[in-house]
Design goal:
By secondary structure, this protein is an alpha/beta fold. The protein is 38% helix and 13% strand. The protein has an eight-stranded mixed sheet, with helices on both faces. A five-stranded mixed sheet has the order 12-11-13-14-15, with helices on both faces. The protein has a two-stranded antiparallel ribbon with strand order 6-7. The N terminus and C terminus are likely disordered.
Length: 538
């Protein structure tokens, strides 16, 4: 019999030696030609059959891991790999009550990991009269979120209810009207609410985090980006962020106003695929279904502005809430502008969220297909060309500290020709603000003393303070040095920091003259018609 070394075999003592392991690792890393399945690998004496395809072996995970352990360069993992890892970790946890059905639902969303924001209103959390927590509703919501997590989706919960829970804890029958008292009640209720959520999610082994925001927290670009990074880190760690407005410190002008708006801004921050506004009705109606039995369901919306003229959303929210259906339309408008599909449905049946995602994720679904009862909702289709992140932040994340009034020529330059705002086009300034703060840019029509509504042109970040703009208004940029003693910028608002909000129809009908339209057609290489009767002059 041949010795083991002569026959190409290694004894256990030899395989345990450090020199053998080092040489074996270098053979495994080897050259690229040795990574083919069609070539003999070190330590394996077999060759592939003639019919075996010459496939490349995917060694990015195993080999890079081995190299890292031995001091080699570490490759940065992508978000996809991190999400895959978090999903595998969540599936390796002890079995939960919802795990038995998760395999049946794993194909929802076409296998794609979605980011979903759920907004739960006060009317779905506590009874509007007794203020008792609706534990059945909350338990169903928690189970639904855990199912979505087990399916690989990332979930953010925006929850109201701090005031309602606080009223119950303090045994107060009616919500007071004094702001300081309401904020104190919210401070009491917020802790109780988070303890309730932590207990329910803890039963299923799902970690949660509390995130309290105010509009003032997002007014600075660095703070806004830090908040976005915090959300991303929490989601990558498979944590469910529970978001609410910090009512204790929010005052008047820096408030979001209601959690519908907060949920839309949160959806834009996390680049969500879906925003679910869970309320006390299945969908949006043309009128209040409680008082008008002839009210019709609205299940598909592509134009929110046209919808406002067709439905009545004047009814207010619950006795302990702050919103209503009108605020949900505002939230849908904000979210769809950021590319987020928004859904209004009933909060007492949160399991419908899974049915809705499954129904609308079907690639073979016709555009005019009827919505089944299990997925009844109002769906607001996201914009095909969403607003870029920075401009969306300027428009919706920042509070406008003042107003800049401009002339008609500046309106056309800003809105039609996408130019910067120069001081020569500024007529006056309203409010006190510093540089780099957001302002409204408006046009005030000239009348014979009769009050008229101003026309909003857009929002922008100013390069000068309100006092400085008042001094340089109507002047050329070459005069800034003589007036101010310095010239930080030749414009008041740079076009990159300007978001236009005026509708094209209003712009064409009120501001664009025959000369402007001739220039526009020339730029578009379109011949000018011989006569046009609908050209409006200023």
């Amino acid at each position: 019999m041949q010795p083991a070394a002569a026959s190409g075999m290694n004894t256990p003592e030899q395989r345990a030696s450090p020199s053998y392991q080092a040489s074996h690792l270098s053979q495994e890393v080897g050259t690229s030609s040795q990574l083919d399945l069609g070539a003999p690998r070190p330590g394996h004496g077999r060759t592939p059959s003639a019919g075996t395809p010459n496939l490349r072996r995917n060694v990015s995970s195993t080999l890079i891991t081995n190299v890292d352990k031995h001091g080699g360069p570490r490759r940065r993992r992508s978000k996809t790999n991190l999400r895959s890892k978090s999903r595998s970790q969540s599936l390796s946890r002890p079995a939960s009550p919802t795990e038995s059905i998760s395999s049946e639902l794993s194909s929802i969303g076409g296998g794609k990991s979605l980011t979903i924001v759920l907004k739960l209103g006060t009317s779905s959390i506590c009874d509007p009269i007794t203020h008792m927590p609706m534990l059945a509703n909350l338990s169903l919501m928690v189970e639904t979120i855990c199912k979505l997590k087990e399916m690989g989706h990332r979930v953010v919960l925006v929850s109201s209810g701090a005031v309602g829970i606080g009223l119950r804890r303090l045994d107060m029958p009616v919500k007071p009207k004094e702001l300081a008292v309401i904020q104190a009640i919210a401070a009491v209720g917020q802790g109780r609410l988070m303890a309730l959520y932590d207990g329910l999610f803890g039963q299923l082994g799902q970690p949660v985090a509390q995130v309290l925001l105010t509009r003032n927290d997002l007014s600075q670009r660095t703070q806004y980006l830090n908040a976005c990074n915090t959300f991303e880190a929490l989601l990558e760690m498979s944590v469910v962020p529970i978001v609410n407005e910090n009512d204790t410190v929010s005052l008047g002008e820096i408030r979001f106003g209601d959690n519908d708006t907060l949920s839309a801004i949160t959806a834009g921050m996390v680049h969500a695929d879906y925003l679910f506004l869970l309320t006390d009705v299945d969908c949006l109606y043309t009128d209040n279904p409680r008082t008008n039995p002839m009210a019709k369901q609205v299940t598909h919306v592509t134009d929110i502005k046209a919808l406002r003229d067709a439905v009545d959303v004047s009814s207010a929210g619950s006795a302990v809430g702050t919103g209503g259906m009108a605020t949900k339309l505002i939230a849908a408008e904000l979210a769809t502008a950021a590319g987020v599909t928004t859904v209004i449905t009933r909060g007492s049946t949160p399991q419908k969220v899974i049915d809705i995602i499954e129904h609308f994720s079907n690639p073979d679904l016709p555009a005019d297909a009827a919505v089944p009862a299990s997925a009844l909702c109002t769906r607001f289709v996201a914009k095909s060309r969403p607003m870029i992140d920075r401009k969306w932040w300027i428009l919706h994340g920042m509070y406008c500290s003042g107003t800049v009034y401009v002339d008609a020529g500046a309106v056309v330059a800003l809105a039609r020709f996408k130019k910067s705002l120069f001081a020569a086009g500024v007529k006056r300034v309203e409010g006190v603000f510093s540089s780099n703060q957001a302002v409204r840019v408006v046009y005030e029509p000239e009348t014979n003393g009769e009050p008229v509504d101003v026309i909003e042109i857009g929002h922008g970040l100013v390069n000068y303070t309100s006092a400085e703009i008042s001094r340089i208004r109507g002047c050329h940029s070459s005069e800034f040095e003589a007036i101010l003693g310095y010239c930080d910028s030749d414009n008041v608002i740079n076009r990159g920091n300007m978001v236009i909000t005026i509708p094209d129809q209003v712009l064409d009908d009120v501001f664009v003259t025959r000369t402007h339209k001739t220039k526009i057609r020339a730029e578009q290489r379109v011949p000018v018609p011989a006569s046009s009767s609908n050209l409006s002059a200023i």
